[in-house]
Amino acid sequence: MPHPARPTVTLHDVAAAAGVSLSTASRVLGGSSRTVAPEYAEKVLAAAAALRYTADASARAMRRASDSIALVADDLTTASIGLVLAAMEREARTVDAFVTVTSTGGTPPRQLETVRLMCALRPRALVLTSSRLDADLMEGRLLRELLDYRRDGGRVVIFGDTDMPFDAISIDNRASAALVGAYLARAGHRRVTILAGAAERANVSARAAGFVDGLSAGGVHGDDIRVVHCDVSRQGGFAAVTRLLAAGPLDTEALVCANDVIAIGAMSALRAAGVRVPDEVSVTGFDDIPLATDVTPRLTTVTVPLARIGRDAIRLALGDHDEPHRTTEHGELVPRDSTRPRA
């Protein structure tokens, strides 16, 4: 008569019985080169023996073979994510790891589908970049997928705003953008148009709100602040300004753009129409991508430490800590030639 199957004992069970973190149990039983204090190693080994834990050899081999860190991004075409990715790759190479990349288009179903696929491939860690990732997204299914992945020994890092219980790096977009609004108000600009990007994207929406905060605090009346939504791209900025010019004379003293590529598209449309920057209208951006100093005139913008964010994301992904680390980065205003004071 066949014996009943013995209940599967997981690494999570061993860690709980030993009273240690999952990562500690994984290092002891997985043959990690990282040192574990002898007293903790003894607890893990004793718990594993008592529970008759047997490692899944194939899964362990997959884990050891994979030195990849998977980056799951909303959009890989932006200049800012390119800077983050380059820094991630540099940092990963210092520990003989490498970065694999995939994009989701920012849609929740595609995010869930992509994360499931990446988890099945068992990378060493997952880094997700998105303007906003909430725990209740897709009725909590994305969160459950990520928690299962972490329970199996993976690490999760999020670059963006989130309420999920993982390591996270965010940018205070609203406060950073307020610096631009305050600067323009001090420079005498009283009629301002904000090229706000897509309304559904949390990061550029926060920047638009911050621009309004800074302008209002500097004395610009709300009726003199116009918000125009557009694609978050060079073509989006070009098309938005082209439409404004087609409606009549450009009744604004400054174009405040949600990022640098929108601003570069806007300046191109102004130049094509013979509108001089900054003599007739000031233009500002956000992110401080390398192209911001190559255009003419050089772009006034907000610099964000994108390279540091990429480096720190990898360090968190490869880190040895149990409690989630949360970091908020702040931008700094960089005035250049695309703005000038108004009377």
Shape designation? elongated
Let me know the CATH homologous superfamily of the largest domain: Response regulator
Structural class: alpha/beta
Helix content: 40-55%
Mean pLDDT: 90
Q: Summarize the helix and strand pattern as letters.
A: HHHHEHEHEHEEHEHEHEHEEHEE
Whole-number total of structural domains: 3
Low-confidence stretches: 1-6, 60-65
Distance between the termini: 95 Å
Rg: 25 Å
Number of helices: 12
Q: What is the level-2 CATH architecture name of the largest domain? A: 3-Layer(aba) Sandwich
Instruction: Name the strands of the widest sheet in spatial order.
Output: 2-1-3-4-5-11
Q: How much of the sequence is in beta strands?
A: 15-25%
**What's the CATH class of the largest domain, please?**
Alpha Beta
Give a short account of the largest sheet: 6 strands, parallel
Number of E-state strands: 12
CATH topology category name of the largest domain? Rossmann fold
Pfam families: LacI, Peripla_BP_3
GO molecular function, one term: DNA binding
InterPro entries: HTH_LacI, LacI/GalR-like_sensor, Lambda_DNA-bd_dom_sf, Peripla_BP_I
Keywords: DNA-binding, Transcription, Transcription regulation
